[in-house]
Design a protein that fits this description.
Layout lengths: L1 H12 L21 E8 L2 E7 L3 E8 L6 H20 E4 L3 E3 L9 E8 L5 E9 L2 E9 L4 H13 L17 E2 L2 H7 L14 H20 L11 E4 L8 E6 L7 E5 L5 E11 L2 E11 L3 E7 L10 H10 L5 E5 L5 E4 L3
Parallel strand pairs: 9-10
Antiparallel strand pairs: 1-2, 2-3, 3-8, 4-6, 5-6, 6-7, 7-8, 10-11, 11-12, 12-13, 13-14, 14-15, 15-16, 16-17
Helix pairs in contact: 1-5
């Protein structure tokens, strides 16, 4: 077992570069003619809201689990259109590809909409800067749709570019999965057996594998963020705009990832190895991938389906250390192991 763990950690040390813990930019503390309202300053999630009598403008800076502006723009647009649908969402303009915050190639998507009622327009943008994203949400009682989009671009242009940010990931979305594949891939293992009392070596070994998988999924070579064309999007019944489900094309192993809402968090079903009584066997895990940590529940028989995973994953996110999990400090080499109480 010690040798297996040594190999696992050696592979991690030789692996791809990790996500940066430090934000690459700073959000403007103030905006001319507007007051700053309810700023949020957390290590991996920063928000500044600006308001005036006729304007609402919000900037979000966060480190998502899959750093790709197109993936999270789709999530943000789905949430925005759902929220505004009953309030009088009108016609949307063309989705614009932008090169902002010092990027020499397109690294952002932006779109604005006409709305009825007390507001005249609303809009959004998502830009990638290194391993982080900047999201813009704006609504106006005075600006029309085109002026709203121009203002969003203008505000993004005021953000000081970072030095040496890595190139952005492709601004493309995975295509829909073929119907015949989508129908068979996700009908598996609805009754996977959760491991109630894994031993410390099992948890630590799974933690090493989990860290490698978290890095791979986060944006490494071949990941959903870096190579979206190698994935496809499947339907997740009942999820609506709350989640987008993806899996790798032609993957017989059944691994999957669901991006949740538009906040940068996700849930995944991954293959792993289970070490028990000096035996090694293939198992699975559900991972709840937050902005700061990835937590996992281990399963003895393969990967649970997405439909069976959201309740235990939600428990991981809410309960934290009260559950049995492997917690990995995302973007570092540290593995925190918590055994069942």
């Amino acid at each position: 077992m010690r040798q297996l763990l040594t190999w696992a950690f050696a592979a991690l040390l030789a692996g791809p570069a990790q996500a940066s813990d430090a934000p690459p930019i700073a959000l403007p503390a103030a905006m001319e003619g507007m007051r700053t309202v309810q700023p949020l300053d957390e290590p991996f999630n920063k928000v500044v809201n600006y308001e005036s009598d006729g304007e609402v403008f919000s900037l979000y800076l966060f480190r998502p689990t899959h750093p790709n502006a197109a993936l999270w723009f789709e999530r943000a647009e789905a949430i925005l259109t759902t929220l505004w649908k009953e309030r009088g969402l009108g016609e949307g303009g063309e989705t614009r590809r932008l090169s902002v915050v010092g990027s020499s190639v397109p690294n952002a998507l932006a779109r604005s909409f006409s709305v009825s009622g007390e507001y005249k327009s609303t809009g959004l943008a998502v830009a990638q800067i290194g391993d982080w994203l900047v999201k813009v949400r704006a609504s106006s009682r005075t600006l029309d749709r085109d002026a709203q989009l121009a203002r969003i671009e203008q505000v993004l242009a005021t953000i000081t570019p970072p030095a040496g940010a890595k190139p952005p990931n492709p601004l493309t979305l995975p295509e829909p999965c073929p119907a015949e594949e989508a129908g068979t891939k996700f009908q598996m293992l609805l009754n996977s057996e959760a491991i109630a009392k894994p031993n410390p070596e099992t948890m630590l070994a799974a933690g090493a594998i989990l860290l490698a998988d978290a890095q791979r999924m986060a944006g490494g070579e071949g990941s959903l963020a870096a190579a979206p064309e190698t994935y496809c999007r499947a339907e997740l019944p009942g999820a609506g705009p709350a989640a987008a489900l993806y899996h790798r094309k032609n993957d017989a192993g059944g691994e999957w990832t669901a991006l949740l809402a538009d906040s940068g968090t996700s849930v995944s079903g991954l293959k792993t190895l289970i070490f028990d009584k000096k035996k090694t066997k293939e198992g699975g895990m559900i991972t709840a991938n937050g902005l700061d940590k990835t937590r996992a529940i281990l399963f003895a028989r393969g990967i649970p389906s997405p439909e069976a995973s959201f309740v235990p994953a939600a428990r991981l996110i809410i309960a934290g250390s009260k559950e049995a999990y492997v917690a990995v400090a995302y973007g570092t080499q540290n593995i925190e192991v918590s055994l069942p109480k």
